[in-house]
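Deviations from the work plan: none for this task. Representative record:
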Amino acid sequence: MEQRQYKTVGKSVRKKDSMQLLLGKPVYTQDVVPDNALVVKILRSPHPNAIVREINTTAARKVPDVVGIYTWEDVPQTRFAIAGQTYPEPSPYDRLIIDRHVRFVGDVVAIIAAETEQAAEKAKKLIKVKYDLLEPVLDFRKAKDNATLVHPEEDWFPPCEVGGDNKRNLVASGLDEHGDVDGVMASCDIVLDRTYHTKAFNQAMMETFRTYTDMDRYGRLHVVSSTQIVFHARRILSRALGIPKSKIRVEKPRIGGGFGAKQTAVCEVYPAFVTLKTGRPAMLIYTREESQIAGSPRHEMEIRVRLGASKDGKIRALDLYTLSNSGAYGEHGPTTVGLSGHKSIPLYTGSLEAFRFGYDVVYTNLQAAGAYRGYGATQGIFALETTVNELAEQLGMDPTVLRDRNMVKEGMVMPAYYGEVANACALDRCMAHCRDMFGWEEKYPVRDMGNGKVRCAGVAMAMQGSCISSLDVGSATVKLSDDGTYNLIIGAADMGTGCDTILAQMVAECMDCSVEDVAVFGADTDVSPYDSGSYASSTTYITGKAVEKACTDLKKQICTIGAQMMGCAEEEVVFESTRVRRVNTDQTVSLQDISYKAQLFNDQVAQATATHTSPVSPPPYMVGMVEIELDKLTGLVTILDFMAVVDCGIPINPALARIQTEGGLVQGIGHTLMENVTYDAKGRPIESSFLQYKLPTRLDMGKLRVEFEHSYEPTGPFGAKSIGEIVINTPAPAIAHAIYRATGVWHRELPITPEKVAMTKPE
Amino acid sequence: MEIKLNLNGRTVTDHIDAGLLLIDFLRDHGCLSVKRGCETSNCGLCTVLMDGKPILSCSMLAARADGHSIQTLEGLQEEAADFVGFIADQGADQCGFCNPGFVMNTIALLREIPDPTDDEIRAYLAGNLCRCSGYDGQLRGIRNYLDSRKG
């Protein structure tokens, strides 16, 4: 592995906004809203599938301080998608701002704008709606070719060909094959055929969805939103509202968490519509209930895995079929499903002779799904890794040894991962490291504690990507400021992850300055260079490389000005941190003098913008091991120790990479043990608040240990890959494995609650 | 109705609706550090001190603060600055939206138990949810602060 010494990269510097955040400064969307902003509220459908026959707003409009009430009759009739994706989006255009046909409990029926929250709430209660109820599609297993169509409309439009058909309730479908799966499977000594079910887990970021809008001093729509995707949000608003992009500016302040939820423009269109109608500032803040029932959670999936192996533990064939529930609208449906196969199957590149991956994504009359950290890989990895653990148990092999024999290793071509080569892959070292640190030999055996409780362990591997290959675009502008410091301007969105800081570290590394000398700004469609946005684990890898390129260009510009000042040719000078020196002489000019010169009788630019994209998406890899204590009487599973070893290439900021990992593990633990998503018989969501949707507290996660195995990714900035998403993928299969060890039961549906553990007996 | 209270050391008198929640009263009076994360008293984001004791301002009527002293993070900047840098060093601030409530409850913890064990810290702060950090970085920060005080 290539080893390089860096000055700033690889150091755990504080996040640039740390003290502002920790001291409670007003830096979020709601904190910047003026007092005269209209309060926007939404009347939502109580029915999962209905047509608004009649809507009477007369009484509601009479409420003092109500400024406007808007129904399906008032909005533009152009369908659009709210998924934050590069145009043309794979997600179908299947929404209107308000549709007469409401498709889930929580769908929009009316928008209310009032001077006060009380007035808006009062008006909401006074709107009289008569619905024609339609039969809902509530079981995603029965959605495809159901007699009830979720989207019967003729103007349903897919911008991309993704195998969707609204007349079959299909958002997308597809098949990917390599080798003779059926032939290899037939010659295998052992074939496991298992089906798994994962739920529509909610991101539950602490700051719910929210957007503020006003008309700016040029009469343009100005949008301040808690979003990961300022540029996509602008495009979405432009289409939905029917106004040109030049009339819209979208910016994000600090964001109170996203995890993918805010990769969808969940709430932007409503206050924007109000501001366009009234000319007034408007603010929409989702309640926690709205965030839970009308947000953009994970896609519920049913995954069937067929695994063929030899007696000696060679995994020879894999056949996955994923059925994904996109809910009432298709956001991210065609793309999330792909990762359930493309980011699970390649883990076994080492031995695999053939694979098949097929999928259908269906519409139902339930909350629409969206993007959530892991983006389908989480679901696929739970299914495949659990099957591999079951294979190990059936063969009587140590599951870590089984993986050693089959896993992808550096230099291998991965047919199930678009034929990419694993340029940087330390998965084997992650496994060895984790086994040692965790104490696998001692913890794997089941230990009866003599008090009705048993202790044991489980294991899983994971991978993810570092961008969307041949698609994502990241850009950065770096400019010299007039005291010799720098400004970095990005369109990527720091949602707490620390990307502002790690990108500044890269500038500091390139320009040989301190991180304090780099001021960061992001993100604003009027100011930032184009960036797809912060999702798909792409910011470090893609925008980071753009930063590196911009710095190279800026250094050259600085040298040009320096050479001019010294009266020599550009080729004669070198950039040396705080100065430019003429080679083989003592003649120098300081960076500060160059920056002043740049503003005086100067025609040489001292500001560089660079853009980057990548034909590959190098996977980060990791191994997770968990030790649990399981109470056989109550079914309670207590996490004692979770050890993760991650290969994210070179970590730019190890402290932030560690926190990303710890946070991802705890979210994964929540999905595995306590966070549930259920509906009643009428399609109404049960877990609509934090009373029912139980997030892990600091008493629920046990001891976390995180280590890194470095690899050097040649196409990444400073050898880096990604970290943000992969870390959520190992808890479910590792914990399910440990629960099997304790109980003899394979739980193939998440979450695995104490009730299920206590009530299920071995087959 | 009229209420009079001490807010961050200043006497504040105001006419309010009887149904006004303390969190909304505080935000109306410029205490924007106070955040709402749920409507069900589950997240701890809105934690402030009433007469020195931590309370959830989303679950208390502003009227009940009449005659009492309320402190928000705006009024405890120095006491917070004493330890929050240690949390920043762990990168555990993350999105920051839960930070004010968590910092307020940590202030209450450190006043009540000046030298807490890790388990005491976890138990005291159990009502403060954080979706980003996985909690351990916050604990390491507090632990490093406590260790630094011991020299």
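The first helix of chain A runs from residue 18 to 22.
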